[in-house]
């Protein structure tokens, strides 16, 4: 989602969770987990795991276009990103630059793509992520993920949910 500013988290300890929660707090997300973490001294591993679960849930529900535009723009070419979002290239540029407010429905699609990209980043580099959207996938009935994310799609719709599930399945594979 572009919220971590390049911070890598190698271990789950109080300091790294504090950093993650701090970044989310700056973006206006996860105020309750942040307050909970502030009240724990020192937090146990179980408390840290619980806070991370709350943080992940809050991040998944919270589009943050100001962070997500730069993050996705580093991976996708403008024409591919515009196509995946169902917006014109000129609108994409205005939203990215902040010259125009990102409409809620575009912010939701942008957020969805940021989540899918995060899932894919465990298995692919930037080139692989771009190609993943363009290649037919057996588990999508031979369709390309881009085909299921065409036009004015709803992230909660069946096609996009199939795309997300496929991307999430790669996380489980790369973690084993």
Instruction: Bin the helical content.
Output: 55-70%
| Sequence of secondary-structure elements | HHHHHHHHHH
Strand content: under 5%
Helix-and-strand structural type: mainly alpha
**Please, what is the average pLDDT?**
82
Instruction: Count up the helices.
Output: 10
Overall body shape: globular
- Radius of gyration from CA coordinates: 17 Å
Low-confidence spans: none
N- to C-terminal distance: 24 Å
Task: Count the E strands.
Answer: 0
Major sheet summary line: none
Number of domains: 2
Describe this structure in words.
This protein has 176 residues and is mainly α. The chain has two domains: 14-60; 65-175, no CATH class. The chain is 64% helix and 0% strand. It is built from ten helices and no strands. α5 (78-85) packs across α6 (89-97). The chain is globular. The model has no long low-confidence stretch (mean pLDDT 82).
């Amino acid at each position: 989602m572009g919220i971590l500013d390049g911070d890598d988290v190698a271990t789950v300890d109080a300091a790294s969770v504090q950093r993650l929660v701090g970044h989310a707090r700056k973006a206006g997300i996860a105020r309750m987990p942040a307050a909970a973490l502030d009240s724990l001294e020192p937090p146990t591993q179980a408390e840290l795991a619980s806070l991370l679960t709350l943080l992940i849930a809050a991040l998944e529900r919270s589009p943050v276009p100001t962070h997500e535009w730069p993050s996705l723009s580093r991976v996708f070419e403008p024409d591919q990103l515009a196509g995946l979002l169902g917006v014109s290239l000129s609108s994409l540029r205005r939203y990215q630059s902040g010259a125009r407010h990102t409409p809620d429905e575009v912010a939701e699609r942008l957020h969805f793509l940021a989540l899918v990209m995060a899932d894919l980043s465990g298995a692919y580099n930037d080139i692989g992520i771009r190609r993943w959207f363009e290649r037919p996938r057996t588990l999508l009935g031979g369709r390309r993920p881009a085909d299921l994310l065409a036009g004015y799609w709803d992230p909660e719709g069946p096609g996009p949910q199939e795309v997300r599930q496929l991307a999430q399945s790669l996380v489980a594979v790369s973690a084993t």
